[in-house]
Amino acid sequence: MVPFTKRGSSYLRALFTFGFFFLFLLFQNAVIYTFLRTSVDSTRGGLCACDNCVTDLNDTDWFFMRFNPTVPVMLNRRNGVLRSDVYRWWTGLQTEITKVNYTDVVDTLFSLFPDEEHYSDAGPDRCRTCAVVGNSGNLLGSHYGPLIDLHDFVIRINKGPTEGYEKDVGSKTTHRILYPESAVDVDNSAHLILLPFKIKDMHWLTSAFTTKHITRTYTGVRPTVNANRDKVMIIHPEFIKYIYESWLQKHGRYPSTGFLTLISALHICDQVGFFFAPYFNSFNMSHRARHFTISIKSSYERRSD
């Protein structure tokens, strides 16, 4: 990989500012590896302990208008009471009427799973590197495995496998983000992150670790999942709404799993590597568009030669 020079970092900053959607259309057939790194102005002091920090992108108006670090990424009891607008929007995503009470579900969740303030330790002494890895066969032959495994966090999406593909996708998994319809067993050392598109998704999570009685949402789902209950986390519904409104500008109905994972990483990490498939279905940000694509690497390397 070509080193990130000062001129290269400036180019990335300008390109990022130009907008995600332009990049989707312009580069959707390129091999994907985007390493989001920006230059640190030494006169300002570092926003993290890394040489380059995601939050340095706040220098750009485009990023600044979208990135809101005050929105909670993960749900807990203390932030679990939803504003009325968040509750209406989130429950409006559901295709069926549920009799399950949200407050009761949250209480049950955090009697089973850690009720913590996750990843609120950002600051000048922290340098957390993260890799977000998609589940596409397009990573085959990429040989990104060793690079992926170098990151502190390796966040995998849905059912993306590693066994037998280690040289291309790595062997390390620290977090796996999923929802009931995409559930898989999660290694005991990794975090299970639930992406709840509906109240029943939260109810399913408690059922999967206790009674195992929920076998269907809008389709059949696994009644149980093997995972470490001490490492379970839940994406906050307000965070989903924030991504839909601020980042997607209300395109589609809600964020895809891939896009949501990407923005989550920007909030909890200081440097982020994106390893995704070269696929993007126009502006369809629906539940079915599971691959989010930014294709900067090939364009950047051409300009750095």
Automatic annotation (TrEMBL):
Transmembrane segments: 12-36
Database matches in Pfam families: Glyco_transf_29
GO MF annotation, one: beta-D-galactosyl-(1->3)-N-acetyl-beta-D-galactosaminide alpha-2,3- sialyltransferase
Subcellular localization, as worded in the UniProt entry: Golgi apparatus membrane; Golgi apparatus, Golgi stack membrane; Secreted
Main location: Golgi
GO CC annotations, alphabetized: extracellular region; Golgi cisterna membrane; Golgi membrane
Record's catalysed reaction(s): a ganglioside GA1 (d18:1(4E)) + CMP-N-acetyl-beta-neuraminate = a ganglioside GM1b (d18:1(4E)) + CMP + H(+); a beta-D-galactosyl-(1->3)-N-acetyl-alpha-D-galactosaminyl derivative + CMP-N-acetyl-beta-neuraminate = an N-acetyl-alpha-neuraminyl-(2->3)-beta-D-galactosyl-(1->3)-N-acetyl-alpha-D-galactosaminyl derivative + CMP + H(+); a ganglioside GA1 + CMP-N-acetyl-beta-neuraminate = a ganglioside GM1b + CMP + H(+); a globoside GalGb4Cer + CMP-N-acetyl-beta-neuraminate = a globoside MSGG + CMP + H(+)
Membrane topology per record: Single-pass type II membrane protein
Pathway listed: Protein modification; protein glycosylation; Glycolipid biosynthesis
Keyword Lipid metabolism (UniProt): yes
EC number: 2.4.3.2, 2.4.3.4
InterPro entries linked to this entry: Beta-gal_alpha2-3_sialyltrans (IPR051757), Glyco_trans_29 (IPR001675), GT29-like_sf (IPR038578)
Any GO BP: lipid metabolic process
UniProtKB keywords: Disulfide bond, Glycoprotein, Glycosyltransferase, Golgi apparatus, Lipid metabolism, Membrane, Secreted, Signal-anchor, Transferase, Transmembrane, Transmembrane helix
The protein's assembly and partners: Homodimer; disulfide-linked. Homodimer formation occurs in the endoplasmic reticulum.
Family membership: Belongs to the glycosyltransferase 29 family.
Protein name from the UniProt record: CMP-N-acetylneuraminate-beta-galactosamide-alpha-2,3-sialyltransferase 2
Species of origin: Cyprinus carpio (Common carp)
Upper lineage: Eukaryota, Metazoa, Chordata, Craniata, Vertebrata
